[in-house]
Amino acid sequence: MTNRLARETSPYLRQHAHNPVDWFAWCDEAIAKARAERKPLFVSVGYSTCYWCHVMERESFESEAIAAQLARDFVSVKVDREERPDIDDVMMAACQAYTTMTEGRASGGWPLTVFLDPDTLRPFFAGTYFPPKPAHGRMAFPELLEAISDAWRERPDAVRKQADAIFAAVQASVDAKPAATSSADISLAEIAARTAAALQQYEDKDNGGFGGAPKFPQPSWLELMDGLAGDVPGAREMLMRALRAISLGGIHDHLGGGFHRYAVDRLWRVPHFEKMLYDSAQLVPLMAASGDAWLERAARRALGWMSREMLRADQLFHAAQDAEVDGREGLNFLWTPAEMRAVLAPDDAAWATRVFGLDAGANFQDPHHRDAPAANVLFLAEIPVESDWPRLDRVSDALLAARATRKQPRTDDKAILSWNALAIRAFAEAGRSLGDAALVAQAAASFDAAWSRFVETGGDGVAARIARVWRVRRAGLEPYAAQLEDVACLAHAATALSRATGEARFAARARELIAFAERTHLDATDDRWCERPAQDEWGLRGKSLQDGAVPGGAGTIALVLEQCGARELLSRTLDAAEPAVLDAPTESARTLLAAHRAHVARLPEFLADLRVEGIGSDRTLVLRFAGDWHADESPTVRGAGLALTPATARCAGETRLALRVARGARAGTLRLQPCDSSRCLAPVDIRFSI
């Protein structure tokens, strides 16, 4: 027996195709049915590798009694948040608004459980996971359904009043422009430095990272710290503490490489086991560029996982791997001392038991299977001495081979454009930092695959331009229009490849994507970037600057504009973003990073361009002088780990200089004396990023 979702192509929706629930995908038919029958819409949002989504499915959506209750009182809709981030954005904003109103603080997560007025489509109740019987301090799902149904029938005016209040908060979160704040005395670049300094107060200095449990890597914050490390005292040290802690904890898959979604404890030891492509893709560039050999090892192993388990035959990347096997959370990743001894030689087993923390006792118990024996998530208490790394590699590879014989978690095999773009950038940036041309070649191959599968062009010759961009690709999968996040992340990947390869075609692709984004995602009335290419069902376009688990489109496009030298559009972008940034600076990390880079990289009138190209230690410093400006004497470079081969002749026009870059070098200062046809100025210092 199947329901309508059997006709869908989303892996997540198809997981629910055999539920007794009379599911619809999000569609006009479901909305029309709800309006005709005067029933609220029950919208359940999740994704294919979400552990608690699976739990709620088994407990509630496979129940005939609950299915009958839903059919009687509601029209039920399933949404894949990864394919429809526009709908998820509104539902999550509603959940955060409702929990703020009722609990005093915003909360959310997946599965999302939301009830909508069918006439206005405005949410009037929102929550997350609900058990079939009261548990964990949560109301039972059947009791919730009864309460919602009673309220809808008996107190419709109160329900609509609540829906209006929630929607006002949703509008403010998703689209509304914050009240303008006077900022004449402070620039966004200064706000960036202050925000980086403020984040240090939120650091868990004992364990690395931010805040307590649950603990997320927060890569956008780490990127901001990396970008401002030369300007904010302590920023680099905080960055390194976080990266090392993540690399040691159980959030790091020490056998297969890559990183789990987050840790449930503040020590980073016990993860939520799903592995999303975007987490590793964002951590890899930071680790690869750190100049720290241990973190470089972690970056390479993460890239190994992405190549081995996530790379599709068409050179695109899968989306994610599940948190569970056979309904058991983390089952594939857990070990006991006896299992270690069965795989490894006695000396190696004893060593691995100690190094991976098994001798301290079990650290994991599946909360839904208390009868199952406790086991261990592997973690490292400290970085092993470097002479032990070959042994660690050998032991890890042997345990990985044994783990491969176990039943494996499900892989969501759809390709999501923004996540693929993050992975492409990871390969390009890591190849550049580590001097590995093969990694850059993989990035180029995957970029070309993404361009051919996700981007459609119209016209020909000089008239050719991007006509549309898609968000998801999978055999037989219905495509959805890309969000700004997708377009911006692909352009960001193109700029990374341009710097790594020096090939003009990647810079050209970035400019084409900027032009498409400007036509499709820029609201010309207020110069604000919109995630949606058009208004959604709620009249919203998604103008938030917020960076989440995946970086937001507005902040990413600002970074791309800075890297491409689109100064006029970047200036308009930052001016329009300023009120929202000042209102919530920690949520706007990428926008602040773009503002900081634009401030640092502001070129004097005599230079049209200044960039560093190439990979590894041997790179090229490219100068392009404006007009008849030139330098009669050889430029020099200052900066830790940098050495410039002196120019042998007058520098004019576009000049390419050999630059030697040591591991971990992130920025430098160029000194030259600019001259034109009639004068020479005093020597000038110009900062640049590597």
Poorly predicted spans: none
Overall structural domain count:
4
Q: What is the percent of helical residues?
A: 40-55%
Q: The biggest beta sheet, please?
A: 5 strands, mixed
Roughly how many Å apart are the termini? 59 Å
What would you report as the Rg, rounded to the nearest angstrom? 26 Å
Mean pLDDT: 93
Which strands sit side by side, in order, in the main sheet?
A: 1-3-2-4-5
Secondary-structure-derived class: alpha+beta
Measured by DSSP, the beta-strand proportion falls in 5-15%
Shape: globular
Oligomerization state: single chain
Strand element count: 28
Please tally the helical runs, counting DSSP H or I stretches of 4 or more residues.
22
Short characterization:
The chain is of the alpha+beta class and 690 residues long. The protein contains 22 helices and 28 strands. The chain has four domains: 4-174, Glutaredoxin, CATH 3.40.30; 188-411, no CATH class; 415-600, Glycosyltransferase, CATH 1.50.10.20; 607-689, Thiol:disulfide interchange protein DsbD, N-terminal domain (Immunoglobulin-like), CATH 2.60.40.
